[in-house]
Amino acid sequence: MPGLIFFCWMLMLPIACAGEENWVGRFDGADTAVPAPWRLLQLDKHVAATQYRIRLWDGVPAIEATADSSMTLLARPVEVDLSLTPVLCWSWRVDAPLINADMAKKSGDDYAARVYVAFKLPPSMIDFITRAKLGLARTIYGDAVPDAALNYVWDNRYPIGTYRPNAYTDRTRMIVVESGAARAGSWVSERRDLLSDFKLGFAAEQGEVTLLAVASDTDNTAEKARAGFADLHFVSREQPCAIR
Description:
Jelly Rolls; seven-stranded mixed sheet; 3 helices; 38% strand; globular; disordered N terminus
């Protein structure tokens, strides 16, 4: 292990070596704006923006998201070697699930809380038709449109474990990690094997994580929601999550 640590230090890699957590969302709890490298990512300029800030929430330093008929991702670039640290850990909370959302419909594609991970795929894994569709989407929404994405959501309707394409695009998979109001109002810790979820969703062995985002999303249902996100990090399959 000392040799491995020295090797990582010498390379000065921005990704974790085996046995180390790769933190992407750890905050100090001060009541302030969200610091860089986090930034707002608004794909549709005609939709109101969800509001974000850093706060201490029941003793947990966290991102607070407040949505009112709104949708904006709070995103940051990520470098992670999924062969070393394929497991994504985080804590989140919602005041309440949405009422009228339904992930099977475009009109209901809203979530009190969601954790979004974007991937870049090798060109050989994207067929001509898909490349054309992605090109059109990027013409409309910009380069933030990924080759593929996973969304871990706190849903109101579908059971935990539901795994399905997004209502708008089959380049995004929706995974229900929490559902309903039973655990609303308190912090809940999660652990997902991101690499396994990616392989299941896209039948692919390779994919480079490029971006991680959180959101409270209510633009389609015109509802209000508040959510919190904390302690986002990657670990190996053998490691426990390092959630406070």
